[in-house]
Specification:
This is DUF5058 family protein. The protein is an all-alpha fold. The chain is 84% helix and 0% strand.
Length: 231
Amino acid sequence: MDLQPVINSPGMWLASSIMVIVVVAQSFLYLREGFRGAAALGIPRSECVKGLRAAMITAIGPSLAPVVILLALLAVLGAPTTWMRMNDIGAARTELAMSALATKVYGVEIRSAGFDLKTFSYAIWGMALNNAGWMVVALIFVKRMNNAIKKMNEKYDPRWIKLLMTGAAIGLFAYLWSGSLIRGGGNLFAGIVSFIAMFLLSKYAGKYPRLQEPALGIAMLIGMFAAAAFF
């Protein structure tokens, strides 16, 4: 059975668009609440826009990496499902891995001759259930985490709490980066070049705020292009 007419059908586009519309609506709601919260804290709107612009530019670098895996998802799951999953989650590698794992439960390898409509449904359910856990955790515990931080700020010096949160973020990114460094080769080279580029941009771009905003994205791109050129 040729699945392409089914997985790329207008019905799939319609069904997939529901989640995308929800994500877009949530984005606008979060943005609105963010601006309201900033106003209540006395943060100028111009600073919020500056941070938003910096985040958008910085996201360009990480968005390039999943493109190759995105093509694989398109071939396996079709354009509508891929469009929906990338807007919902964005982790192309994880989505591809979970869809492959789910089809193995059914006893069929992904993209094999036995990949039929039922296997396709297993792949979709596998991706959905994989994300359900952390979504439920976030729904239940985010508010409690916020209350815990408030209590910590009341009990201890807020400056130390801020340093603790910063250290946790640095540790997280260091952990994510360490996997690439251990593999060596192009990954290590890209990481070192990106680090040097970020250091130089941070040190010499102080007089140019517009250059500081996209610094992380620029550093990532420099590292990727350098690794692609030499490896």
